Amino acid sequence: MTRSGLTNHGPAEPGLAGPGSTPLSLADLASAARDVLPGEIWDFLAGGSGAEAAVAANRAAFERIHVIPRVLRDLTGGGTEVEVLGRSAALPVAVAPVAYQRLFHPEGELAAARAARDAGVPYVICTLSSVVLEEVAAVGGRPWFQLYWLRDERRCLDLVRRAEDAGCEAIVFTVDVPWMGRRLRDMRNGFALPEWVTAANFDAGTAAHRRTRGASAVADHTAREFAPATWDSVAAVRARTNLPVVLKGVLAVEDARRAVQAGADGIVVSNHGGRQLDSAVPGVDVLGEIAAAVAGGCEVLLDGGVRSGGDVLKAVALGASAVLVGRPVMWGLAAAGQDGVRQALDLLAAEFRDALGLAGCRSVAAVRDLRTTAPRHR
């Protein structure tokens, strides 16, 4: 399978093969994914909004941060386990919600969820999943459900009920998408979903499949289905479920404090991977300030730009209880299905374990006492 086209039933079954094919970094998986995916699907995954300044800024922000390691510490008996939203995870990592994963591999969300289960980390099912949420949740492990606010409030809150009934452990309410940002790669490609990929959680009609030159059919679909969320929307979700509610897409200290007041159990500091406001600050640049502002009133997670276990270490040192990782997991999915996702998560685990010890930390809890060149507000 090359980047030039699609099979009749989705991307061809890919795999990493040949001498030297074992990935040693997430960048290796990115190269393998780019080789196997059609160009417009790679663009859908890799691209951001506008000039993609926020996408680049997310990486630049991580690269500016340096950890000040400690030495001569006892490192015996350590581990990478952490508690996130009241449950144990093997790493301070969760798989971020990513729409339409059957674009990247025929098994889509099912393959990714199985790999996350086996790796011992939470998997966030997207509202725009290409496999119905009940099937993905049935894989087991630690499923969470990501919610977009829909024009049909009844249908939106019904998704919350379905997620709870299916065994999801949290509702991750994305609050930074009043509408989809202008993603120029998709517009230039006239991107539309292929016929075998649908928004499986609700009947979305044909809007996302209708190709129009100079426009994104996915953006057209979301414009028809999504509505801007408000604090009243948060109250409605909070009242609808007993599950932990996490607000994803918070960047302002004022919003973080209000989230605590609104009863949120957690927030995800995120600029949506650079796919919404192109001038938005990188989440990691404001993470320390936000963690200090909420002062334990809710959990603080980070999303956007994480590309290594060292990045995970930096985020935890700045106050995150865990990070969400999206694109790198999808690189693994495209490159080798379930095995590729597990390779991505195994790489993060190995790199984080290495960074943990080299920073002089026996446990994740010890990382929170590290200093960095981006000081955490205390």
What is the CATH C level class, in words?
Alpha Beta
Percent helix, as a range, is 40-55%
Mean pLDDT: 94
Order of helices and strands: HHHEEEEHEHEHEHHHEHEHEHEHHE
Just name the CATH architecture: Alpha-Beta Barrel
* Strand element count: 12
Distance between the termini: 52 Å
Q: What strand order characterises the main sheet?
A: 4-11-10-9-8-7-6-5
What is the SS-derived class? alpha/beta
Fourth-tier CATH superfamily name: Aldolase class I
Shape: globular
Number of domains: 1
Query: What's the alpha carbon Rg, rounded to whole Å?
Result: 20 Å
Pfam families: FMN_dh
Protein name: 4-hydroxymandelate oxidase
GO molecular function: FMN binding; oxidoreductase activity, acting on CH-OH group of donors
Organism: Actinokineospora auranticolor
How would you summarize the topology of this molecule?
Layout: H1 26-36, H2 39-46, H3 53-64, E1 67-68, E2 82-84, E3 87-89, E4 93-95, H4 108-119, E5 123-125, H5 133-137, E6 143-147, H6 153-165, E7 171-174, H7 184-189, H8 217-225, H9 231-240, E8 245-250, H10 253-261, E9 266-269, H11 283-294, E10 299-303, H12 309-317, E11 322-325, H13 327-358, H14 364-367, E12 371-372
Parallel strand pairs: 4-11, 5-6, 6-7, 7-8, 8-9, 9-10, 10-11
Antiparallel strand pairs: 1-12, 2-3
Helix pairs in contact: 1-13, 4-13, 10-11, 12-13
Keywords: Flavoprotein, FMN, Oxidoreductase
Cofactor: FMN
GO molecular function: FMN binding; oxidoreductase activity, acting on CH-OH group of donors
